Description:
By secondary structure, the protein is an alpha/beta fold. Helix content is 35%, strand content 25%. The protein has helices at 89-93, 98-103, 108-117, 120-136, 152-168, 191-208, 226-238, 255-262, 275-284, 292-298, 305-310, 331-341, 346-353, 355-359, 386-391; strands at residues 2-15, 31-41, 44-50, 56-62, 67-70, 72-74, 139-145, 172-180, 214-219, 242-247, 266-269, 287-290, 315-317, 378-381, 398-405, 408-413. Strand 9 (214-219), helix 7 and strand 10 (242-247) form a beta-alpha-beta unit. The two termini are 30 Å apart.
Amino acid sequence: MRADLLIYNISKIYTPIGTKPLCGEDMEKIEEIENAYIAIKDGKILAAGKSPAAISAEREIDAKGMIALPGFVDPHTHVMHYGSRENEMALKLKGYSYIDILKQGGGIHSTVRATREASDEALLQKALKSLEIMLSHGVTTVEVKSRYGLNTEQEIRLLRLMNQLKSLSVVDIVPTFLGAHAIPQEFEENPWGYVEKVINEMLPKVKEEDLAEFCDVFCEEGAFDYEQSKKILEEAKKLGFRLKIHADELTHSKGGELAGILGAISADHLEEVSDEGIELMKKAGTVAVLLPGVSFFLNRPYADARRLIERGLPVALGTDYNPGTSPTENLQLIMSFAYINMKMRAEEILTAVTLNAACAIDRGDEIGTIEEGKRADIVLIDAPNLDYMMYHFGINHVNTVIKAKGNDVVVIGIK
């Protein structure tokens, strides 16, 4: 057998198996292969198994006893923005909520202003810096939402820039349209007017230019209520978009119920989700994307991961990287939050940031596992086992990232 690249002397491969999201006890079913190798050809995994193997290769990597994991997938980010909001921390420390700050013209409105005023080049360079940090922490695929334009011209601009990122970054980019994240200040007295603008102007234009696969909406008090969210997502579905929803984050907005009713591919946040919402999402096959970085940063309760897993929902994890509520690109830190504060087990967490996260962006047949035929997105971790990686928190355990780009692979040494 002849490969392009052979990774050998791997102490252990840890990987979920399959192409569909795993739920319940299956989230812990991780295949472990000791004294292993991975062979890669034409950008895909040719074989993976126990060494030795009769394989020759043009290039070889000695893993030096490290463990190998599938490349991490971050299924919820807001990378494309400008500016930061550290100035709001004083208000938060005094007890002001996100909605309080939003009503004062801060929050997302300040980021919208900064983003609208930034040049295309400035936005691209800031996004590329964030993607480089994510890659260095083992993330090989990132979902990116628009969100900070909040008018037709700017939302289209941001989505076009996201698509430019695909050729500028080693990281794979999956764009999502989120024009319905907040009511812009110019529509505060006419929120339904903005809903109609999203439906009649933005969605058709995004579809016409094929700028995004998914349509998302922030269903929450102070943003878009249940009926407004339902109207936007129904119209998006008619145009052929897959659906996502920011659901039940700060209040029980019935976003979980709406995700299940409309068959959303993912419902994200879910700190306040109801039992009815869980059951409806379960029937629809919706992936629950939990974002513990937000709970940490806002000092709010974490989503009840154990409840969701035990009720049979597939759970994924993401950073929700954004300047207001989760200013971190470090998915490994998010994994530690899930381990320590959400009581998720190490194997569940691995599934949540690989296969289930891939399924939350409709990529489960391409990435998320180390299996023959999957894309060769692999990380070598300088840790003795999975639990150690999450227990020893706050540092970067990645030694090397192997990233498929077309029919080739890029090897990035981190340490």
